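Hi team,

Filling in the usual template for the complex we talked about on Friday. All components are listed, including any nucleic acid strands or ligand strings, so the model treats them as one assembly.

SUBMITTER: L.P.
PURPOSE: interface mapping
COMPONENTS: two
RESIDUES: 558
SEQUENCES:
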Amino acid sequence: MIQITDVNKIYASGFQALNNINLAIKPAEIFALLGPNGAGKTTLISAICGIVDATSGQITVDGKDIVSDYRHTRRLIGLVPQELTTDAFETVWTTVSFSRGLFGKKPDPAFIEKTLKSLSLWNKKDSRLIELSGGMKRRVMIAKALSHEPTILFLDEPTAGVDVELRKDMWQLVRQLRDDGVTIILTTHYIEEAEEIADRIGVIKNGQLILVEDKIMLMNQLGTKQLILDLKEPLTEIPANMTDFNLQLKNNGLQLIYSYDTTEEHTGISVLLQHLSVAGIAFKDIKTDQSSLEDIFVSLVKETT
Amino acid sequence: MNRYAVAAIYKFEMARTKRTIFQSIISPVISTSLYFVVFGSAIGSRITEIGGVSYGAFIVPGLIMLSLLTQSISNASFGIYFPKFTGTIYELLSAPVSSFEVLLGYVGAAATKSTLLALIILATAHFFVPLEIAHPFWMLFFLVMTAITFSLFGFIIGIWADNFEKLQVIPLIIITPLVFLGGTFYSVSMLPPFWQTVTQFNPVFYLISGFRWSFYEVADVSLITSLCVMGGFLALCLLAVTWIFKSGYQIRR
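RESULT (copied from the run log):
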């Protein structure tokens, strides 16, 4: 759907915002682009949407070059920018209708009505944007981006500053759009957001794409799992017959934590439990914990520092 | 041609005028009418005719030109500057519209607004001074072409400006003096020779002269000269706009 080949962006100041980016976005997937502040997420989106010109490289959308075939490619794309940039004195209805016209679609009040209703904006259609709350404005931005029926939707930090309820509504909407065949590319600071809705994850840092992976694969490959044992009696040190295991003592010796690789055929749990039994170490509770996408993201970003 | 986009921009800009009717229409009509009252009805009756035209009637084309130029510039410059200021320009930059279509929408709307305003002022002038229009076609031609040319100029200013002060600077410091010194209130032949020569370098002088000719067949320069100067300035603005869109100056980061 989107093919990015050897794309670089160097600003007039000499700052390199994108460094040899290569990426393919598949149709009808939710792709989450993660990265720390200033990593190049917004620049990459802006380059695809035509807001900034790439210094070198090529970007195609639906097989067409975004520069020479901009009319075709831009009609396919809807963009929800990071900042709430709205025409304060316009009404919801006029601003959304304006966006539809701008993207070359003939007026269709029925479609605008459907879009506003799907975003719970219908009862605000005659309100001026200046009168709306931040969350409502965010919905209007989405309505504007969807007004011309795009097949690709860019969401740049879509839930920044949005309350939990609205965030969950938006996740639901994003899933619905994906199910309807829309390709979604989102940037976010909320790792849980990516973990919740993304199909694939890309991590960008200092303008370089350091990882692109299927979310489940990523969590399996890079995720570590922990077995946590709450002991009946505290230990002062790891018993000598268990030093080969990746064990840690926590909570004043009352918690024994075993970290293991989920991709290994033998996790070593049963052997560990046997050793504990032999050593006469009793435990009152046992649980497991898997590293989250946030842990993986933090460790990835740290690794490349 | 993305005609829906052109229509969307045009309608959006025209709707803004409707929302700000006091500022866009009523205020300039009232302030220009004050000139008609003061210089036309009150003082004008004590001033001798210029080229066979009563003083009140003589100043009408120049005053219409003053409103036309300032409003064309301010409408177009504000139209494109405001999206830059609020950040909504992202939508314009990511839309499937060509530079020409953007121009058609913004400049078309600005020129329409200022032409309408000029016609309202012209109609208002009838209440204060006796008017006749010898060449209605040329009068309309000058009106529309000047509106388009200076809307283009305003569009360039709107792109160049990075704060509200810069938006005001050109109309206030350059355009208004050029109109006042371009023969709005007098015929250039009334000036000493040195100032007559200086006036030749004022492009607005040629516009006022041509426009006044369409009313009374009285002009300081020939119609052809006025048309050439207007055409030259139009070409200059088009060149500048072409360069702006090609280079992305002040638009694309």
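MY TAKE: Residues 164-179 of chain A form the longest helix (16 residues). DSSP finds ten helices and 14 strands in chain A.

Thanks, L.
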